[in-house]
């Protein structure tokens, strides 16, 4: 397994008035790794993922991606460099089919504007790629369904597909299981696991069963600070984590 570092956070601080939402945070994510970030409400998980995606700027500290300092790089440029974030459904064109949604995302990556969508309709390679991505997120049987008619869990799968269409090296997944029933999350888990063969994944998730099934490493945040990083077994047995967060689980 590769240990190539994809993402490195150095002394990341985000201050809101007197509050440190991320407090001198260090973190690395390697290629081929699913790295979960867990912690109680208000621990700073969302603030952290916003800083990685470029939605908000850190107060101090730096973010390196593939060895390059991207702290001041725009969100759009970060996507081009291979840093993708799965948004919560808001990206989906509900009146278009699953296939068309993914094809549009592939087309956007290729740099053509939506104006050229009509020409793109005849582009076989585009739709072959979109179909393959649909399969990667488990939607092959639903590829021609209008996205607005998908079940909630399927829309979440499509979200991941739209992020994959940017050909990310690192994928940020912000609560992919949110609002899913047990059957739906059971279906999503192997799909996420398969992604890690080629890329790195940062996973924020409240569903601890999913986290412990998926993660190669887990970082536990409490009040903006890393209190532990390790394998699921290490985290499960870490006395400080048990005390601060997991209770007696
Ligand atoms: P949850 O699990 O509830 O989503 P979280 O771990 O994602 O929580 P954050 O949303 O990152 O936590 O919040 C971390 C801390 O920063 C919280 O105390 C929150 O109130 C504070 N915070 C977040 N955004 C802002 C903001 N824009 N202005 C002021 N305080 C903020």
UniProtKB/TrEMBL annotation:
Keywords: ATP-binding, Cell membrane, Membrane, Nucleotide-binding, Transport. GO terms for molecular function: ATP binding; ATP hydrolysis activity. Gene3D superfamilies: P-loop containing nucleotide triphosphate hydrolases (3.40.50.300). SMART domains: AAA (SM00382). It comes from the Bacteria. Pfam families: ABC_tran, BCA_ABC_TP_C. GO terms for cellular component: plasma membrane. Residues 7-248 form the ABC transporter domain. InterPro entries: AAA+_ATPase (IPR003593), ABC_AA/LPS_Transport (IPR051120), ABC_transporter-like_ATP-bd (IPR003439), BCA_ABC_TP_C (IPR032823), P-loop_NTPase (IPR027417). This is ABC transporter ATP-binding protein.
């Amino acid at each position: 397994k590769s240990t190539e570092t994809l993402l490195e956070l150095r002394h990341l601080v985000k201050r809101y008035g007197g509050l440190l939402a991320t407090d001198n945070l260090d973190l690395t994510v390697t290629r081929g790794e699913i790295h979960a970030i867990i912690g109680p409400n208000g621990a700073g998980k969302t603030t952290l993922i916003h800083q990685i995606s470029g939605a908000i700027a850190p107060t101090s500290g730096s973010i390196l991606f593939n060895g390059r300092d991207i702290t001041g790089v725009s969100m759009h440029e970060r996507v081009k460099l291979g840093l993708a974030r799965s948004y919560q459904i808001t990206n989906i064109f509900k009146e278009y089919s699953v296939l068309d949604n993914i094809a549009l995302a592939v087309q956007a990556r290729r740099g053509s504007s939506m104006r050229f969508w009509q020409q793109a309709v005849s582009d076989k390679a585009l739709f072959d790629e979109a179909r393959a991505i649909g399969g990667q997120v488990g939607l092959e049987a639903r590829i021609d369904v209008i996205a607005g008619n998908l079940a909630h869990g399927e829309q979440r799968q499509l979200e991941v597909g739209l992020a994959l269409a940017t050909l990310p090296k690192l994928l940020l997944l912000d609560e992919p299981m949110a609002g899913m029933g047990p059957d739906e999350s059971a279906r999503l888990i192997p799909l996420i696991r398969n992604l890690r063969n080629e890329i790195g994944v940062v996973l924020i998730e409240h569903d601890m069963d999913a986290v412990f099934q998926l993660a190669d490493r887990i970082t536990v945040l409490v009040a903006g600070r890393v209190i532990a990083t390790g394998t699921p077994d290490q985290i499960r047995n870490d006395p400080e984590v048990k005390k601060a967060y997991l209770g007696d689980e």
